[in-house]
Amino acid sequence: MYNSKAYAAASAASPLASTTVSRRDPAGHDVQIEILFCGICHSDLHQVRNEWSSLIPTVYPCVPGHEIVGRVTRVGSSVTGFKPGDLAAVGCLVDSDRTCPECQAGLEQFCPNLTLTYNFPDKHLGGVTYGGYSDSIVVDERFVLHVPSNLDLAGAAPLLCAGITTYSPMRHWGVTKGKKVGVVGLGGLGHMGVKFAHALGAHVVVFTTSPNKMDDALRLGADEVIVSRNAGEMQKHSGSFDFILDAVSAGHDINAYIQLLRRDGNLTLVGAPEIPLPVASFGLLFARRSLSGSLIGGIAETQEMLDFCSAHDITADVEVIPIQKVNEAFDRMLKADVKYRFSIDMASLKSE
Amino acid sequence: MYNSKAYAAASAASPLASTTVSRRDPAGHDVQIEILFCGICHSDLHQVRNEWSSLIPTVYPCVPGHEIVGRVTRVGSSVTGFKPGDLAAVGCLVDSDRTCPECQAGLEQFCPNLTLTYNFPDKHLGGVTYGGYSDSIVVDERFVLHVPSNLDLAGAAPLLCAGITTYSPMRHWGVTKGKKVGVVGLGGLGHMGVKFAHALGAHVVVFTTSPNKMDDALRLGADEVIVSRNAGEMQKHSGSFDFILDAVSAGHDINAYIQLLRRDGNLTLVGAPEIPLPVASFGLLFARRSLSGSLIGGIAETQEMLDFCSAHDITADVEVIPIQKVNEAFDRMLKADVKYRFSIDMASLKSE
Fold first, then answer.
1. Is the pLDDT of residue B348 over 90?
2. How far apart (Å, rounded) are the C-alpha atoms in residues A236 and A213?
3. Which among B192, B176, B139 is positioned nearest to B299, based on CA atoms?
4. Would you call A68 exposed, middle or buried from its count of C-beta atoms within 10 A (0-12, 13-18, 19+)?
5. Is residue B174 less than 8 Å (CB to CB) from chain A?
6. Disulfide engineering: B268 pairs with which of A194, B14, B169, B205, CB 3.0-4.6 Å?
7. What is the rounded CA–CA span in Å between residue B263 and residue A168?
């Protein structure tokens, strides 16, 4: 075991503050990574504040962070895929049972025995896992990704959650050249959705409640921007979309988007509104439309996504902050005051 | 033109009563059919009482009926697929534009220019189309089905709506041998769903609120019956279903069923609850589940379904009534007092 510097919350009401946590020494298939950047995901805030207590109660101290990019410092004796000095990344998962049908299908995110990167029982040290708001992490190589060298590392960090969360459903539902794709909600997830849909060759339409996001949406790759409050504008697109990615985490009128789908079109939720969304059955019946959800992606697909980003020169638009500003960043995230993701420069942790 | 005996409602508040309506003489591709049986569908009642006025206002007099089985009496000079004496059937559609992408895909039910069998603008005679509560109908041969000779005609009539409505989504979502399939709601639609899922080789589980339907569900082909109020019983099946057919037309807790789906499982609505159903996003996200709707089926698939019924000896369980009892049947249908579909013996119309 060794000590790793970290930022942790001591309780649901505490701000994040400097601390140290224990990490295991890398053995066997383990890879030790010096963390260079860690993105801030909305779920970090939910878990730090124990807002998902019914789903996954938070154990304190809680070190969040699952958008991790860094450099390999040591490897266990059985490691074959990484060597010290390699760029490496870790997302939301650090382990799974590797034997269940989900793991066999490369969908470790649905493994009933997965281990999340933070706030999840740690099979090695007891207690819970500690995430990426830290200077170091040790992860089995089977859950470590290779980071293509042409990617900006600060902007690459959010790919590990926001990136794969939006990439995976687009691949699953067949977003390709010639398809008409909508993205609802231009935030951390949505702005990645726009980039991916554009790079996949689709005609991309961004829906936003804020007319002032129009220029930015076009810059990110949108072909059209619709202000969703404009019912006439919405009506014009009725029955025309192959796929809509809905990245809104607040309650909203999902039926207005369902009716924009063409026959057999799909709307996938990647935000997670806490209140149930009323769904009108007729909207689904009349064109055999479907509504679904998607959750990050498997390990192989996450690597595929990173390689796709390399080929298409895609990273997240980030505001880089020192870790000392993480509490302020949480507050600003709640006000959607970030374009479009915070990425913590972990060099700032050295001074703690 | 000629006169056809029929039962029609004169207003939303009127009972159905004997009348005559005009039909066109069969010309070109037209097939004239002597109607022998017509099933009673819940949508007949909705439309007769103008309960779908926002969707499709009812024009009076209204002759409902779109589960039509009969015998060909005359054919137009261009008809190639039917001859007098042939058994024939007509479902919910009597025409479409035949050129749009939906028609090209064999999905005439989604054609933007379709013609429904009743209460829809009649391109030939003006006014609206008149349905199957009548002794005769004239329909373009491209919308007439062949009825396999081994099927009981009274029980075959409901196949044209209840049958195809449940068969089509099972085929679309890949119900086959080895799949675990749920059917929610054991009524006119649901009982057909059980028969089809069983014949397709699936392990069939019926969900019901009425323990007294258990024996009947098993007789129809269910392998298991779950009383849906029993939370413990429901929990045991969590994450295990490939497909669930939801044939409930009242509001109900759909999330309880969504959580029973395995990864990539689908729940298809074929009932049409009038109030929106609250859908919890987490249930969809956690296993990439989907919720969709389905609406009857195309003409080719309807013929495929009838041929499947012939091969597997499937018809609806019907209570045959004379047309004079149709108003009473409507009232009993509202109380779910029928096992499982009324089929009107149209010979009874001769005495009117």
1. yes
2. 21
3. B139
4. buried
5. no
6. B169
7. 15
Which of the two residues, B184 and B275, has the higher pLDDT score? B184
The answer to whether the CB atoms of A289 and B293 lie below 8 A apart is: yes
| Chain B nearest C-alpha distance from A296 (Å) | 9
Q: What is the pLDDT of residues A37-64, one digit of tens each?
A: 999 999 999 999 999 888 899 999 999 9
Q: Tokens 């028969």 label which residue?
A: B195
| Mean pLDDT to the nearest integer, A214-228 | 95
pLDDT of residue B263: 96
Tokens coding B204:
């069939």
Per-residue CA distances from A274 to A277, A340, B281 (Å) = 9, 22, 8
Q: What residues does A30 pair with on adjacent strands?
A: A140
Residues 50-69 of chain A whose Cβ lies under 8 A from any Cβ of chain B? 55
Minimum CA–CA partner of B246 in chain A: A281
> Cβ contacts of residue B19 below 8 Å, gap of 6+?
B5, B6, B7, B8, B61, B63
Inter-chain CB pairs, A–B, below 8 Å: 101
Enclosing H/E stretch for B306: helix B299-312
d(CA B121, CA B114): 10
| Sign, CA torsion A164/A165/A167/A171 | positive
A270 touches chain B (CB under 8 A): yes
- C-alpha A314/C-alpha A191 separation (Å) is 11
Q: Which residues of B touch A288 (CB under 8 A)?
A: 107, 110, 172, 292-295
Which domains, and CATH codes, for chain B?
A: 2-161+297-351 (3.90.180.10), 166-293 (3.40.50.720)
pLDDT in tens, B306-332: 999 999 999 999 999 999 999 999 999
Closest approach of chain B CAs to the CA of A88, in angstroms? 27
A281 contacts B271? CB cut-off 8 A? yes
Give the Cα separation of A336 and A332 in Å (integer): 6
Inter-chain contact A286–B110, Cβ cutoff 8 Å? yes
